[in-house]
Every structure is written in structure tokens, then in C-alpha cells.
């Protein structure tokens, strides 16, 4: 799996079970009608049941400059300290979940169904708001256990 390149995302939530977030590379579009994405979350992680209970999430697609955020939410930082490591980059005013400032995109939605598959749950998120970054500065990809910025200029 280390040779499967994937976009880097931080999934965030807030609600009755509290604020939480986790870095994931297993996230993708499912359909545009209704607009739906999926994220795969290990069932043994602390955030699995929090996401399930809160239902509201934001899938933050990371830009190249968010490597530090990705590392903070990847597990090396204790769960209760993840937002404090990078609290100034989170916007809590535009949605009821934390939205990463300057992300390539942020998809806000509700978990509408969950399917267990082996050690993970596939959580289907129906989007009700999409926030696209202003500068189109690229994205962050994970490949061979390292982050790689994608900064290619977008052509018109």
C-alpha cells in the first residue's frame, strides 16, 4: 500500500462527543448526485466512535503548506493536543465543524451511512457545502511513506 499515492486530508468533527480530527489518505468522491464522498477510518482509533456519534464532518483537502497539520493529526500528537498544535489555522465560524484555512478544498457534510470492512469503516459523507481554496496552489500527496507537494500550475 505504500506505493499507492493518495491525497492527504484531515477529517474534523465537532458535536456532542467533542472536537476531534484525524489525517486520512483514504478519501474519495463517490457520486455527484447527491454529492457524496467516502472516508475510511480504522475502527480501533479514538476518533471512529466520535465521528459516528457527531455525524457532522469536514474533509479538509490539504494544500502543500499543510504538512505540519497532517503530521499533527496523523497520530504522533496526542488526540487532545492536535488542535492546539495548529489552532490558528482552524475556522470555526463558517461551519459547525473545524474548517482548515487555506485548504485546497473543504467538504462539509453529514455521515449518512457506514459500512464495516475488515479493520476499517467506510463512512459515506453527503456534502452540503464545499469551500474551494482561493489560490489553487496545489495539493499534498502521500507516497512511499512521505509527503509530496503537488504545485503544478493549473492551466485554463
Fold and architecture overview:
- Helices cover 12% and strands 46% of the residues.
- It is mainly beta.
- A seven-stranded antiparallel β-sheet has the order 3-2-6-9-10-5-4. It has a three-stranded antiparallel β-sheet with strand order 1-11-12, with no helix packed on it. Strands 7-8 form a two-stranded antiparallel ribbon.
- It starts with 5 loop residues before the first strand and ends in a 6-residue tail after the last strand.
- The model has no long low-confidence stretch (mean pLDDT 90).
Put the structure in a nutshell.
The protein has one domain (about 5-150): Electron Transport, Fmn-binding Protein, Chain A (Pnp Oxidase, Chain A, Roll). About 10% of the residues lie in helices and about 45% in strands. The protein contains three helices and twelve strands, in the order E-E-E-E-E-H-E-H-H-E-E-E-E-E-E.
Quickly list its features.
156 residues; mainly beta; Pnp Oxidase, Chain A; seven-stranded antiparallel beta sheet; three-stranded antiparallel beta sheet; 12 strands; 12% helix
Write the layout of secondary structure elements.
Elements: E1 6-7, E2 9-13, E3 20-24, E4 27-32, E5 35-42, H1 46-54, E6 56-61, H2 67-72, H3 82-85, E7 90-91, E8 99-100, E9 105-117, E10 120-132, E11 139-143, E12 146-150
Antiparallel strand pairs: 1-11, 2-3, 2-6, 4-5, 5-10, 6-9, 7-8, 9-10, 11-12
Amino acid at each position: 500500500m505504500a506505493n499507492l499515492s493518495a491525497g492527504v486530508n484531515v477529517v474534523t468533527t465537532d458535536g456532542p462527543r467533542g472536537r476531534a480530527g484525524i489525517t486520512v489518505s483514504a478519501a474519495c468522491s463517490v457520486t455527484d448526485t447527491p454529492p457524496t464522498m467516502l472516508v475510511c477510518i480504522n475502527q480501533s482509533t479514538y476518533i471512529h466512535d466520535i465521528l459516528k456519534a457527531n455525524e457532522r464532518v469536514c474533509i479538509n483537502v490539504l494544500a502543500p503548506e499543510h504538512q505540519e497539520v497532517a503530521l499533527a493529526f496523523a497520530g504522533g500528537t496526542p488526540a487532545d493536543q492536535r488542535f492546539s498544535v495548529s489552532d490558528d489555522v482552524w475556522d470555526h465560524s463558517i461551519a459547525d465543524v473545524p474548517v482548515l484555512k487555506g485548504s485546497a478544498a473543504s467538504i462539509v457534510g453529514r455521515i449518512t451511512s457506514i459500512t464495516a470492512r475488515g479493520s476499517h469503516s467506510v463512512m459515506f459523507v453527503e456534502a452540503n457545502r464545499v469551500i474551494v481554496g482561493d489560490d489553487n496552489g496545489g495539493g499534498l500527496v502521500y507516497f512511499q511513506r512521505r509527503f509530496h507537494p503537488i504545485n503544478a500550475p493549473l492551466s485554463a
